[in-house]
Design brief:
Structural class: mainly beta
Number of helices: 4
Largest sheet: 15 strands, mixed
Length: 267
Amino acid sequence: MKIDQIKALGLPQTCLLAVLFFFAAVTAGGQNASLTPPRAGYKFPSNLTLTYTVDWRVFTAGTATLHIENDNDHAKITASADSVGAINMLYPVIDRFQSYFDPRTGCTSGFSKQTQEGRRKVNTELQMQYQQGRGVLNEKNLVSGTGKQQSFPLAGCASDLLSGTFYAASQPLRVGESFTFPIADGLRTVNVTMKVEGREEVRTPLGIYKTVRVQPTASAGVVKNRGNIWIWYTDDERHLPVQMRARLFWGTITFRLAALESKEVVR
């Protein structure tokens, strides 16, 4: 196992939220897609925590957690990604993410992340200023003490890399169909296309689930032809993500649901 591969594993694009969208979200311009509101009758989960084991090749590389709180007017998602075992000894990763969005529309109001990867420590905050037609990105390097603020044009409502996980679940997910929606990613808004490929039964540490398999795709970009990503959502009204997989040029990472904390029945 090479050290550059370990570092690659620790970079943000292979953490939980990016396994879902980062590689798929690089497009070659074009008009932004619109953010369709959640389907009629759909309710985002509330006080739900999903914990995943993260496997890379033959290694258990880490753990990841998603937690969503929803009070009908405001929703908050928090996520964490931590390396474990040999990976943690060679290249420790402690990442934290937060997203705030309107559950009635799916529109993100803010997104932030705190990343500690090896010697790198950076805090990033994204504010969506829809009335001003812009997004504002603040970034601070905690090692050097330097920081910067940049803005970018924002044509309309968008999701973000974290809330996009649950926004996709709010759509019908009909087998054989696709949908595209905008995600605010850094200093731009990019389009993500979600293709619903089929139904599949998957085995996780928590049990066996009937699922619909969804593949995020991009028609162009720097990662075209370099790998594939899939998400398995439960084949029910909630569409909970119980498994995620990124098959990349340096290996495959798989997230499997290992624990679920909720008062709701999920099967």
